[in-house]
Amino acid sequence: MKAIEQTSLVLLSMSLLILVLIAAGFAFDSYTSRPPLYTPPPQNRDFSYTKSVTEATSLEGLKTVCTFWAEREDQTQRFVKAVHSQFNAFVHDVITTSVMLGLIFSAGLFYIYLTARRLRRMEHNAL
Fold first, then answer.
1. Pick from 85, 93, 97, 113: nearest CA to 13
2. Which domain, by its residues, includes 73?
3. 3-class DSSP state for residue 122?
4. Residues 50-105 pLDDT 10s
5. Which end of the chain is more exposed for a tag (fewer CB within 10 A), N or C?
6. What is the domain count for the chain?
7. pLDDT (tens digit per residue) in 101-114
8. Neighbours of 105 (CB within 10 A)
């Protein structure tokens, strides 16, 4: 009975230590993470914004190219923000699930420890 009590106490302390490490890692990650820098994908080799702007023959054509360029940059920024928020939500869900499973495991180990301790004391008092 004493071996069960000691083993469950060691497992309980290890599970609580792991929960503390998960919480510390999540806190460290949330306070030190920055939004990712955007690296544009390689463009089509025969298309160049600079070439389009320098070859524009009218103000209307230049305005069209600049508007298209600005809209594309806005779409890119919205995409990066959306992907970053989805990543943060995924990390939050993983951390929450890990903590919940750790708490359930710790509660079970705590129950085993208390039961083993109670049985050992009852056995000791019976003698």
1. 113
2. 2-36+58-126
3. helix
4. 777 777 778 887 888 888 888 888 898 899 889 988 988 998 898 889 889 888 98
5. C
6. 1
7. 888 988 888 888 88
8. 16
